[in-house]
Design goal:
about 260 residues; P1 Nuclease; globular; 2 strands; 11 helices; mainly alpha
Length: about 260
């Protein structure tokens, strides 16, 4: 019986690695939303406090991941990503009829802006939005449809078989810095002037997602399938992780300051 349980447990771990689609993992989302909270204006802070019953946005940063097993929210399962194959763009890729990270983000913005809606509805879309902005900045959430955003793209990480998606959702973050989310938020949120911050916040969600698609393409090019991920990988891509965390945090804050 003990042997059976061990086999089942190991199988569940492997299965979880192969189908991972939690952008950045919980740590990454906490970092992004923590950065955003630090840059909210007083009006946005007040409205968010009301909509979230006094809780912080970080408290709900992974809520959209956590509700996916709830049948009432089954419609959101495809909202975390938009898989863009080689040679395609978001505009020319095959669209999922249930929506994707771009359509879900635009819907959430629209509903959050509508003050005729009950606060309970606007609160739900706020919880959606604070997660979706993080997801659209995670490179493998703009990965190829043919390998399900890197889930079916096998690589070897420190002598263990895994996949490219899991490397970017979890493994790379912990390997780059041994910080907790508060330390990440404190140490990478460098002081910027208003001009620099506005430059990052400029554009629309589709523009930000196009940047992520470009990063995903580079990552595929630099990560050969079925081979060891080199030790230099962490050093090379840590700056990109920090950049994407900052951009997502600033852009989320900019959106909410404008909406609320």
């Amino acid at each position: 019986m003990k042997k059976i349980l061990i086999v089942l447990f190991c199988g569940l771990i492997m299965f979880g690695h192969s189908v991972s689609s939690f952008g950045w993992g919980s740590k990454g989302h906490n970092i992004i939303v923590g950065i955003a909270e630090a840059h909210l204006n007083k009006h946005a802070k007040k409205e968010i406090r009301k909509l979230l019953d006094g809780r912080t946005m970080v408290y709900y940063s992974t809520w959209l991941d956590e509700i996916r097993s709830n049948p009432a929210f089954a419609y959101t399962r495809t909202w975390h990503y938009a898989n863009v194959d080689e040679g395609k763009t978001y505009e020319t890729m095959s669209k999922d009829p249930n929506g994707d990270v771009i359509t879900a983000t635009l819907l959430s913005i629209k509903q959050l802006k509508d003050k005729s809606l009950p606060d309970s509805v606007r609160s739900m879309y706020l919880k959606f939005l604070i997660h979706l902005i993080g997801d659209m900045h995670c490179p493998m959430h703009a990965g190829r449809a043919t390998d399900r955003g890197g889930n079916d793209y096998p690589v070897v990480w420190k002598k263990e078989k895994t996949n490219l998606h899991y490397v970017w959702d979890d493994l790379l973050i912990d390997a780059s810095k041994r910080w907790n989310p508060i330390e990440w938020t404190t140490y990478i949120d460098v002081v910027m002037n208003k001009k620099q911050q506005k430059a990052i916040e400029a554009g629309e969600p589709i523009d930000w997602f196009r940047e992520t698609v470009a990063h995903a393409k580079e990552i595929y090019d630099n990560t050969p399938e079925n081979q060891d991920v080199p030790s230099s990988y962490v050093r090379v891509y840590t700056p990109l992780i920090e950049e994407q965390f900052l951009k997502a945090g600033y852009r989320l804050a900019g959106l909410l300051n404008a909406i609320l």
